[in-house]
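Supplementary Note 3. Input sequence used for the single-chain structure prediction.
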Amino acid sequence: MAGGLDDVRFLTVAEVAEMMRVSNMTVYRMVHSGDLPAIRFGRSFRIPESAVLEAIRKPLSDVG
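The predicted structure, written as discrete structure tokens, is reproduced below.
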């Protein structure tokens, strides 16, 4: 399935927090505010790795 979910890697909140060097709570705030897209699985969230990399590359002036 080209361009489908086979190409997407999902990360946990803890993995995102480690990549961004922030707390888990900061990642949850970003998810709830819509700054970071996420999919909810039961009681946990999964964030596409591509969205995290894009958020990291954003210039500081574009953040919050």
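The first strand starts at residue 10 and ends at 11. The chain has one domain: 5-62.
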